[in-house]
């Protein structure tokens, strides 16, 4: 059966058609992602995103569209989204660090000494939110979804945690 017919069958609910497509192309797609990202963990993360997008877009698929170019377009777009997200996160952290350096050189070194998981002064929700925001680079909307709260609340939790950390850094310095 062709990839295109398998994709149509999958769009109509045939899970074994998906399994066949996955087995046929998983190595090729992962190789593409690894080649673009040069990082196995990132490639694995984007690999999962590709198949989630394939699943959510399955009903939009048309047989006249060749499957491989279609799935590689999804893959390419997932790589672009991942890189943009990573660049935005890096710029945010860089600008925050630059802001700290401009305000107080010792404050930056004190901040780098903190391990978010070990800060007993923060609540577990604050530690989790900070980790999601700064370690994983999630948006406030994504944090809200993961913590099952509102976007406004997730923003407040992160803001309050940062204020606590700043207060600790001033006390430490």
Beta-strand proportion: under 5%
User: What is the overall silhouette?
Assistant: elongated
**Which structural class is indicated by helix and strand composition?**
mainly alpha
| Straight-line N-to-C gap | 68 Å
The structural domain count equals 2
Give Rg in angstroms. 21 Å
**Number of helical segments?**
8
Q: Say what the CATH topology of the largest domain is.
A: Rna Polymerase Sigma Factor, Chain: A
The helix fraction, in percent, is over 70%
The CATH architecture of the largest domain can be given as Orthogonal Bundle
CATH superfamily of the largest domain: RNA polymerase sigma factor, region 2, helix turn helix motif
Secondary-structure element series:
HHHHHHHH
The main β sheet shows up as: none
Mean pLDDT: 81
Per CATH, the class of the largest domain reads Mainly Alpha
User: Would you report the number of β strands?
Assistant: 0
Low-confidence stretches: 103-118
If you had to describe this structure to a student in words, what would you say it looks like?
- This protein starts with a helix and ends with a helix.
- α1 (3-11) crosses α2 and α4 (67-103) packs across α5 (105-112).
- The protein has eight helices and no strands.
- The protein folds into two domains: 3-82, RNA polymerase sigma factor, region 2, helix turn helix motif (Rna Polymerase Sigma Factor, Chain: A), CATH 1.10.1740; 104-172, Arc Repressor Mutant, subunit A.
- Helix content is 79%, strand content 0%.
- The protein is mostly helical.
- Residues 21-86, 119-166 form the RNA polymerase sigma-70 region domain.
- Belongs to the sigma-70 factor family. ECF subfamily.
- This is RNA polymerase sigma factor.
- Keywords: DNA-binding, Sigma factor, Transcription, Transcription regulation.
- InterPro entries: RNA_pol_sigma-70-like, RNA_pol_sigma-70_dom, RNA_pol_sigma70_r2, RNA_pol_sigma70_r4, RNA_pol_sigma_r2, RNA_pol_sigma_r3/r4-like, WH-like_DNA-bd_sf.
């Amino acid at each position: 059966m062709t990839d295109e017919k398998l994709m149509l069958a999958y769009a109509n609910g045939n899970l074994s058609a998906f399994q066949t497509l996955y087995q046929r192309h998983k190595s090729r797609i992962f190789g593409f992602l690894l080649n673009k990202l040069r990082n196995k963990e990132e490639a694995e993360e984007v690999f999962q995103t590709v198949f989630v997008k394939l699943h959510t877009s399955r009903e939009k698929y048309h047989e006249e569209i060749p499957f491989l170019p279609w799935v590689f377009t999804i893959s390419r777009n997932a790589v672009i989204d991942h890189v943009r997200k990573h660049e935005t996160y890096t710029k945010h952290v860089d600008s925050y660090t630059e802001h700290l350096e401009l305000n107080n050189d010792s404050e930056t070194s004190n901040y780098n000494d903190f391990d978010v998981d070990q800060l007993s002064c923060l609540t577990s929700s604050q530690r989790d939110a900070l980790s999601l925001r700064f370690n994983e680079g999630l948006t406030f909307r994504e944090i809200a979804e993961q913590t099952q709260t509102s976007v406004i609340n997730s923003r407040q939790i992160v803001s309050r945690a940062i204020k606590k950390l700043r207060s600790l850094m001033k006390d430490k310095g």
